[in-house]
Amino acid sequence: MGDNLVYKILKSHIVEGELKAGEPIALKIDKTLTQDSTGTMAYLQLEAMGIDRVKTKKSVAFIDHNMLQQGFENADDHKFIQTVASKYGVYFSKPGNGICHQIFLERFSTPGDTLIGSDSHTPTAGGVGMLAMGAGGLDVALAMGGGAYNINTPKVVKIELKGKLNKMVAAKDIILEVLRVLTVKGGVGKVFEYGGEGVKTLSVPERATITNMGAELGATTSIFPSDERTLEFFKAQGREEDWMEFKPDADAVYDEVVTINLNELTPLTAKPHSPDNVAKVSEVGKIKVDQVFIGSCTNSSYEDLMKVAKILKGNKVHPDVSLVIGPGSRQVMEMIARNGALADIISAGARILENSCGPCIGMGQAPGTNGISLRTVNRNFYGRSGTLSGQIYIVSPETAAVSAINGVLTDPTEMDVDITVEMPKEFLIDDSMILEPAPTNAEVEVVRGPNIKPFPVSKPLGEEVDGKVLIKVEDNITTDHIMPSNSKLLPFRSNIPYLAEFCFNTVDTEFPKRAKECNGGFIIAGGNYGQGSSREHAALAPLYLGVKAVIAKSFARIHKANLINNGIIPMEFKNEADYDNIELVDDLKIENIQSALEAGVVTVKNLIKNTEFEAVADLTEKEIAVIRAGGRLNYVKVNS
Ligand code: MIC
Ligand code: SF4
Description:
Layout: H1 5-13, E1 14-17, E2 24-27, E3 31-34, H2 36-49, E4 58-62, H3 72-88, E5 91-93, H4 100-108, E6 114-117, E7 131-134, H5 137-144, E8 149-152, E9 155-162, H6 171-182, E10 190-195, H7 204-213, E11 221-223, H8 228-236, E12 256-261, E13 268-270, E14 278-280, H9 281-284, E15 291-294, H10 302-312, E16 322-325, H11 330-338, H12 341-348, E17 351-352, E18 372-375, E19 391-394, H13 397-406, E20 434-435, E21 465-472, H14 479-482, H15 496-500, H16 511-517, E22 521-525, H17 537-544, E23 547-552, H18 557-565, E24 569-573, E25 587-590, H19 593-599, E26 601-606, E27 611-616, H20 621-629, H21 632-639
Parallel strand pairs: 3-4, 3-6, 4-5, 6-7, 9-10, 9-12, 10-11, 15-16, 15-18, 16-17, 18-19, 21-22, 22-23, 23-24
Antiparallel strand pairs: 1-2, 2-8, 5-20, 13-14, 21-25, 24-27, 25-26, 26-27
Helix pairs in contact: 2-3, 2-5, 6-7, 10-12, 10-13, 20-21
Keywords: Iron, Iron-sulfur, Lyase, Metal-binding
Family: Belongs to the aconitase/IPM isomerase family.
Cofactor: [4Fe-4S] cluster
């Protein structure tokens, strides 16, 4: 029995545990990435660990999220990250150089290696055969310090691609199809490995679109083999020496196989407000569109924007539509500027943004009231665009561009235009916006603005946990619900006390006040709690407000790890029906929590209703030790 790609990497990187699906393992991490909105916290945590220099093969800090500088905060945070990165031996990609995942793919990705990043779309680099995973900032800081990364051994699902995409059907439609079939919970505990004859029909940027949005399945990550097409990409990036062939064994085994027939796919869209709310564009019909955004780490490659330029060339954007373009990197922007494609886009009437996340994370371009916005992004969670009544539809660049011309959602196969784009023989290579770190840490002084506030640290666990039910939420609550992000809040990612005032703001504006008045307590949640962004702030803000435990029907992987790292106990209802019997401000109490965690089952008393129920604490020994210590930083201090 041969190995699949995932097991090949797991076997070469495992430092602890046993490779058996569901069992905890620790992996050696070769490379890390951070971006600015999670990075400030990650580097504060790195400093708190007291190490001299990072111990990875390469670590890179990107500035791409908090780009609107409406006040001093973002600029100060950029300076902090630049100086702290230099001091600790981390490469620094300047603001304007582009989105972390696009640049990492272009300039830093290496097949067969492991990568963790403080951003949930780190799996983008799986497009060249890396095992690339999103993680909380603290986990990334620990990996930079040479620590291993803990995951549960995933199941490996093969996605067998058959045939070839039809004209105007895109890689985006493949991942939307996977989401339609498997849903936002379908990937929990799994890695998706792409294979089959259809793989060679896809370029590296197309593969990266798919692995990027695999994050929306709740998957640990997604991965493609590294083949001749990958070599073509590395050669054109002037990085042939970083390439290696990486294929599964011919007799590789998989836990499951899902087959997708590329020939049968048609353009798809994910309707508001979930990436798995997928339908055929032709079936949704010609709804009137107010805004179109083409960009984000999912679809802002050279290839994507060249296709868009070919569609727009000689046409005009519909008078009622605002078309916004955000190139993924400076390499992309400069290349389309030099070859004239940007001129075609501008001439059609598009608005051009700098190379950054932009509207994807609500940094500008919020739609108008009830505005319908087609976006090539990966997430359309409620409120994420910055407009609560905004209706975001996720589409491919092809669907976006054709619809921008027509003013209505349009199946792009209706337009007859040749959009073939050849992979350039040479990409334009200029790494001058990637700064090398200082040779030693002694010569760098870290610059800290007044926006940087100390972050909360949990206390060691006592014998008892009690408190009120501070909020009760439904299934599929995202970290965007827990700790919203938009242009007003993103500048405060290094200021937890301020940010905490907005915790759960799109769900229940009274939560922060209630949490403080009750002196902390419990969060009660449905299934897949904490899906989406890796932001650790969705654990840090509740911690600051006194949350001690979350009892949910189930958790998303990264958020569960973030809760544990910050000393908040995640527990699952043993019997889901017990969820229905809990109400806001019920008084809960868990006695003998220390031994209950060991046993894995906790009895929760409801003091108001005079009832009790059981919750499962599905935690490894190490995780229990972390919670006992009052979070990972305390644990590391005690154990090093
Ligand atoms: C996102 O797409 O939600 C983000 C913003 O990139 C986040 C990171 C963050 O919240 O800063 C992510 O995907 O992890
Ligand atoms: Fe940036 Fe959006 Fe990608 Fe997150 S999903 S990294 S906000 S472009």
